[in-house]
């Protein structure tokens, strides 16, 4: 009997060949994987233990026009959670160490649940070092939690500037969906002011650091010694037109006051100082803004988040008398010999329109110097509504200036069509014009517009669009790129401007309404105003420029509910002008001394 359990020799051979082939295939595969394809599989193996750490790029720094830092950056720790690895049982301990309310962590995770659970969520920014120490001591137990070093805005340089700087915050979902590929969850984006306008050059480019981790996600080294890392590229630094000393003086003057100030270089349109008061503390927005702070800011009756300099509208009061005067001069309606008798007001119809004093016989210069209402009641009737409206718009009122922050409105310049729309055709009379003649009535302007208006008087109708950016510094090349102002000329004769400018000079250095701000070494020309306020005390206004013969600063100051412009607004303007021009004089002297020294060396050679 054949004891071959395979049934036959042929079957045995077939099975033998199958076994040989099988082991041959396995051997070849093992040889290929371990010898031939080892480098490729080694890379894949490494990749399975590689953890990318994204490095946020530092935002560009803000400098003033003289190179002093206004807004910088500082390092901070950010705590994160990766939902795929996170154990929710850790939440009570995490919230306790962070000092936040119960449910805080779950709220953040819920807000970002649409994104991959493998993407880390920022839970807390600018955390105290004790939190980091706690994490390091318990890292092996805190699965799904880590921290990274980032930068955040530093506002410790003595200037608030909340309404012009704006702030940064984590990008909202609606903007993130709109700008996919440019931003990712947890990225910061500029909100309001300069941060928003120049976001694209301020934010820089993110970097990536690759690290090796073990099965418990503990860091064991750098991947390929950092050769594959991508360094973050800092955003462009911005040199602003702001003068730090003038800005500091403006902010100091408005402490415990409400209102605004805008100061411009009348030739270039550069913003030298910009304040909306009350302000808010930008450091509250540098990390995560607490609900208590946000609620307080939004319920504050004085509205600190509201930008009064560009968004609040006021009647300009007597500061608008120069516009009516120059319109009448340009149109040939009056000349310097034209006079009106002021007996304390004007009877028009059944109403008596008052003047503050009995001024007697008044010409155009005296009417501005003494701020005679009666002169302008009669003058605007001669000019007519449409011509007055046209000149008002020439000076930039009734439209946005185009300043490089987005929060701005245009105000209201009444015209025939405006009154027809508001009151009905045939239902208003010329009596409406009398209030416009003294800057009251339906006319409304912003402090920024008043500053631009004043700059045009300072520079004979020529100026440039107001702007905050003077130059930007490219990160890669360290090259400074200057901003070219957008110049314009409103086309009014120098002869007419000379008349008004001389009258504005007399307001301060004659027998006018602002003699209290005279400085022997700085000749200021200006005009006071008191704007009626139906909701409380009148607003104090002053506009002016200096030095008179060679203007370098034009300014508008509005102090809410403060009464007369001469008593409150004018002294504030004087202090800001002084802060700017005294330093400018020192800089000029330094440049002159440097030039003289250089000339002396050349002569000696």
Quick structural summary:
This protein has 605 residues and is α+β, with helices and mostly antiparallel strands. It has 3 domains: 9-36; 51-240, Penicillin-binding protein 2a (Domain 2) (Alpha-Beta Complex), CATH 3.90.1310.10; 257-271 and 307-587, DD-peptidase/beta-lactamase superfamily (Beta-lactamase), CATH 3.40.710.10.
What does this structure look like?
The structure is a single chain. The protein is an alpha+beta fold and 605 residues long. The chain has three domains: 9-36; 51-240, Penicillin-binding protein 2a (Domain 2); 257-271 and 307-587, 3-Layer(aba) Sandwich (Beta-lactamase). Helix content is 37%, strand content 20%. The chain contains 21 helices and 23 strands. Strands 2, 3, 4, 5, 10, 18 and 19 form a seven-stranded mixed β-sheet that branches. It has a five-stranded antiparallel β-sheet with strand order 12-11-23-22-21. A hairpin with a 6-residue loop joins strand 18 (469-473) and strand 19 (480-482). Helix 13 (321-330) packs across helix 15. The longest helix is centred in the C-terminal third of the chain and has 36 residues, at 569-604. The radius of gyration is 35 Å and the shape is elongated. It starts with 8 loop residues before the first helix and ends with a helix. The relative contact order is 0.10. The model has no long low-confidence stretch (mean pLDDT 89).
């Amino acid at each position: 009997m054949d004891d071959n359990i395979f049934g036959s020799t042929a079957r045995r051979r077939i099975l033998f060949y199958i076994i040989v082939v099988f082991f041959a295939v396995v051997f070849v595969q093992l040889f290929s994987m371990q010898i031939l394809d080892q480098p490729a599989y080694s890379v894949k193996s490494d990749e399975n233990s590689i953890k990318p750490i994204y490095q946020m790029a530092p935002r560009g720094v803000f400098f003033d026009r003289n190179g002093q830092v206004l807004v910088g950056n500082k390092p901070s720790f950010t705590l994160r959670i990766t939902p795929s690895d996170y154990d929710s049982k850790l939440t009570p301990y995490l919230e306790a160490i962070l000092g936040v309310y119960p449910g805080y962590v779950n709220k953040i995770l819920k807000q970002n649940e649409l994104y991959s659970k493998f993407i880390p969520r920022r839970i807390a920014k600018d955390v105290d070092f004790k939190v980091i120490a706690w994490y390091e001591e318990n890292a092996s137990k805190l699965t799904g939690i880590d921290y990274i070093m980032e930068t955040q805005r530093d506002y410790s340089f003595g200037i608030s500037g909340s309404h012009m700087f704006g702030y940064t915050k984590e990008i909202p979902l609606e903007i993130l969906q709109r700008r996919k590929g440019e931003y990712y969850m947890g990225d910061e984006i500029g909100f309001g002011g300069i941060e928003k306008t120049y976001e694209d050059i301020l934010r820089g480019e993110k970097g990536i650091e690759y690290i090796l981790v073990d099965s418990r996600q503990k860091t064991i080294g750098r991947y390929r010694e950092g050769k594959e890392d991508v360094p973050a590229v800092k955003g462009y630094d911005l040199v602003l037109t702001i003068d730090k000393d003038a800005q500091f003086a403006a902010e100091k003057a408005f402490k415990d006051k409400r209102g605004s100030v805008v100061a411009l270089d009348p030739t270039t349109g550069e913003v030298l100082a910009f304040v909306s008061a009350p302000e808010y503390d930008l450091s509250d927005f540098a990390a995560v803004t607490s609900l208590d702070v946000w609620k307080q800011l939004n319920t504050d009756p004085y509205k600190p988040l509201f930008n009064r300099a560009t968004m609040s509208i006021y009647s300009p009061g007597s500061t608008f008398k120069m516009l009516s005067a120059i319109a009448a001069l340009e149109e040939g309606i009056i000349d310097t010999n034209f006079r009106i008798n002021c007996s304390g007001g004007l009877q028009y119809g059944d109403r008596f329109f008052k003047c503050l004093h009995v001024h007697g016989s008044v010409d155009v210069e005296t009417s501005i110097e003494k701020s005679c209402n009666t002169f302008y009641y009669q003058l605007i009737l001669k000019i007519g509504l449409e011509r007055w409206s046209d000149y008002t718009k020439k000076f930039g009122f009734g439209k946005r200036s185009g300043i490089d922050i987005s929060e701005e409105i245009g105000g209201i310049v009444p015209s025939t069509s405006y009154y027809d729309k508001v009151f009905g055709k045939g239902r208003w009379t010329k009596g409406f014009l009398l209030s416009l003649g003294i800057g009251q009535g339906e006319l409304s302007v912003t402090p920024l517009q008043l500053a631009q208006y004043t700059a045009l008087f300072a520079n004979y109708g020529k100026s440039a669009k107001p702007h905050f950016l003077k130059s930007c510094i490219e990160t890669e090349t360290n090259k400074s790129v200057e901003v070219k102002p957008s110049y314009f000329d409103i086309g009014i004769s120098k002869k007419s401007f000379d008349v008004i400018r001389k009258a504005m000079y007399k307001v301060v250095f004659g027998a006018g309404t602002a003699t209290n701000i005279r400085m022997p070494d700085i000749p200021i020309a200006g005009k006071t105003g008191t704007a009626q306020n139906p909701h409380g005390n009148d607003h104090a206004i002053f506009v002016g420029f200096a030095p008179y013969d060679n203007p370098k600063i034009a300014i508008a100051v509005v102090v809410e509910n403060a009464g007369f412009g001469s008593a409150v607004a004018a002294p504030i303007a004087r202090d800001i002008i002084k802060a700017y021009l005294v330093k400018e004089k020192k800089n000029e002297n330094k440049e002159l001394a440097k030039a003289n020294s250089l000339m002396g060396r050349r002569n000696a050679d």
